From TrEMBL:
GO biological process, one term: L-arginine biosynthetic process via ornithine
Annotated localization: Cytoplasm
Record pathway: Amino-acid biosynthesis; L-arginine biosynthesis; L-arginine from L-ornithine and carbamoyl phosphate: step 1/3
Family designation: Belongs to the aspartate/ornithine carbamoyltransferase superfamily. OTCase family.
First-listed, main subcellular location of the protein, grouped into a coarse class: cytoplasm
Catalytic activity: carbamoyl phosphate + L-ornithine = L-citrulline + phosphate + H(+)
Protein name listed in UniProt: Ornithine carbamoyltransferase
């Protein structure tokens, strides 16, 4: 079926309505099934994705590049050394040139404003592969993973533990819209994005869910179904003295996991530092779904590309719940 996302950007999950988000998750589930069955799905044959990387990545690069190959197209990796941006060409001019040669642009950038400038000048869809503010493609993969393990996102309590960042920001955007309670457990409560928090609380009120922000890790994980964390020091981040010590009570370990619901799962967007934000026994334990989550980056990348470049939404024989 044709899709309203044709030609649309994905800079933030707020750019898309609830139906569009569910359609992309459904498409991702169908494309994952086709890939598992080795059923060819060249939905983007002869299409090209420009991939701008200001910051290096494993999952974003391999996920998008493999996605284009499996969809019958091609991804072009562009590091700072591969473009003229670093030598004075404007972001707008780069966007205009890439729009003439490629069918979409994915950018992983240091500053969210770079994405906004790209999107304003480009005539093709611009996809946020990560910015300092948001990480929407990660949150989509997270939602798909939760649906796979729990059957639905509705009624799930998802808890993010650690330093508020672009990942927790995108989870704030998506969790209440999919019917999840969402808690942030952090010693740095004041660092939670207030704009996104206010919007998430409005969404939660409309959907009958809860948003919790607390500096008590035990309060955060009470009745939790999913415990989620990220590195305590992001790439290039300079932290104040005492930063790591303040975060120590928020490490996902056996003790904190025992305070959550029986059967709760553990997620991490990777890369992870065992012994810091997560203990090795939990990271590699039977309740960890970290690598399912990593794999789902591929399938959700494909769904975003199929929707925005080809305008397609796919359906499985039985539609999954939110």
């Amino acid at each position: 079926m044709t899709h309203s996302l044709l030609g649309r950007d994905l800079l933030a999950l707020a750019d898309w309505n609830d139906t569009e988000l569910l359609d992309v998750l459904e498409t991702a589930a169908e494309l994952k099934l086709r890939q598992q069955r080795r059923k060819a799905h060249p939905l983007l044959a002869n299409r090209t994705l420009a991939m701008i990387f200001e910051k290096p990545s494993t999952r974003t690069r391999v996920g998008f590049e493999s996605a284009m190959v499996q969809l019958g197209g091609h991804g072009i990796y562009l590091s700072p050394r591969d473009t003229q941006i670093g030598r004075g060409e404007t972001i707008g001019d780069t966007a205009r040139v890439l729009s003439r040669m490629c069918d979409a642009i994915m950018a992983r950038v240091n500053d969210h404003a770079t994405l906004v400038e790209l999107a304003e000048a480009a005539d093709v869809p611009v996809i946020n592969g990560l910015s300092d503010w948001l990480h929407p493609v990660q949150a989509l993969a997270d939602a798909l993973t939760i649906r796979e393990h729990f059957g639905s996102c509705k009624g799930i309590k998802l808890v993010y533990l650690g330093d508020p960042n672009n990942v927790s920001n995108s989870l704030l955007e998506i969790a209440p819209r999919l019917g999840m309670d969402f808690a942030i457990g952090t010693p740095f409560v004041a660092n939670v994005d207030q704009q996104l928090l206010a919007q998430a609380r409005l969404q939660a009120a409309a959907n009958g869910t809860k948003i919790i922000v607390t500096n008590d890790p035990l309060e955060a994980v009470k009745n939790a179904d999913v415990l989620y964390t990220d590195v305590w020091v992001s790439m290039g981040q300079v932290v104040a003295e005492g930063h790591l010590e303040a975060l120590q009570p928020f490490q996902i370990n056996a003790e904190l996991l025992a305070a959550a619901n029986a059967g709760s799962k553990v997620m991490h967007c990777l890369p992870m530092h065992r012994g810091e934000e997560i203990s090795a026994d939990v990271a590699d334990g039977e309740r960890s779904i970290v690598f399912d989550q990593a794999e789902n980056r591929l399938h959700t990348h494909k769904a975003v590309l199929v929707a925005t470049v080809a305008g397609l939404a796919l359906r499985r024989s039985k539609r999954l719940a939110a």
